[in-house]
Amino acid sequence: MKLSIIIVSYNVKFYLMQCLDSIKRAIDGIDAEIFVVDNHSKDDTVEYLTATDHDVKLIASHHNNGFAKANNMAIRQTSGEYVLLINPDTFVGENTIKECLDFMDSHPNAGGLGLQMLNCDGSRALESRRGKPTPMTSFYKMSGLCAKFPTHKRFGKYYMCGMSWNTPGKIEIISGAFMMMRKTALDKVGLLDEDFFMYGEDIDLSYRLMTEGYDNWYIPAKILHYKGESTQKSSFRYVHVFYEAMLIFLRKHYSHTGFWLYIPIKTAIYVKASFALVKILTDNVNKMLGFTTRKNRRNVKYVFIGKVNSLEACRQIANRNGLIAEYIESDEYSNKLGHTTLHINADNDNKVYAVYDITAYKYETILEIFSLKPNKDILIGTYLPQHNMIITDKEIIS
């Protein structure tokens, strides 16, 4: 078998449905298997997959085992030449997986591969390419120097921003949101470290691949990553787990460094975590008191783009939910550039979701459209006719 795909899911049934739909399009003609490991979801994910998706190999855990352990459960059952770990809050282009496999086949020393992840406005996610979080690189990130000087050779090393986005290049850390690995390399370096509950395990595994002499690569193939729909980033638990992962990695790989370096970095992590917790607490208090920023009070408009039948279904959903909406009949053959050719009114008072009918536009076309002209006020939305639902980064509407 050529490829084994593993998706770890936790309470994201509808995002998972879209992810699976895009993957099945992308593996057409490829000898592949798909594993979904459900971490004890409460949203009927297991029941849905059991009843409707017999192509998926389902592992239904009775506990939330975290990302690393859940992936390892499936990895042990795989038979593919390559293993792909992919988040459920993503979708891929129709040719994305084939591009990745072709690249891995032609680069025999490649241990792992990542690609260009897009944010919901079409901009490139910096997490697509990362450098090793050495103590100094981590310090530049934690202190804000990386954000202030993102293209600086030293200060910007965390996100490797000096690299070209449009050509393949060697990187150090691959994001676990989309991480394709050669199975023989994985057998050599070992599975994900289960000391990491969530976050950090991709950094650790990438580091071990390099330590064993493999190359990690970035290629400019695209996916959308909703960035966190499978986690609650506004929760105290998120902050605890995220910064605990940083400490685990630091202890595991850099505890041998001198006291003068290890202790300041550890202190910086605790300080950063404390500030994050204070911000969460402040935001929660403001919400309880009814205080919202002007940005949070912006109007939301939905522009539906697709075939006649889909537009009518979207109209019914919009009316039922009281949405401000506009409807445009189009497909990628009549209008390859989609919403970028339309006069969409998006400004500081309005946020727009350009919602594409996936029977009128391929996933890869939607990604290309948004990446050509990113706009922070115009965000990706999709309409899935087979499930009669609208998916955005913030909600599922049906």
Automatic annotation (TrEMBL):
Where in the numbering of this chain does the Glycosyltransferase 2-like domain appear? 4-189
**Which Gene3D superfamilies does the record associate with it?**
Spore Coat Polysaccharide Biosynthesis Protein SpsA, Chain A
Pfam families membership: Glycos_transf_2
**Family annotation (CDD domains):** GT_2_like_c
> What start-end ranges are recorded for coiled-coil regions in this protein?
none
Q: Which domain of life is it from?
A: Bacteria
Protein name (record) = Glycosyltransferase family 2 protein
Taxonomic source organism: Marseilla massiliensis
- High-level lineage: Bacteria, Pseudomonadati, Bacteroidota, Bacteroidia, Bacteroidales
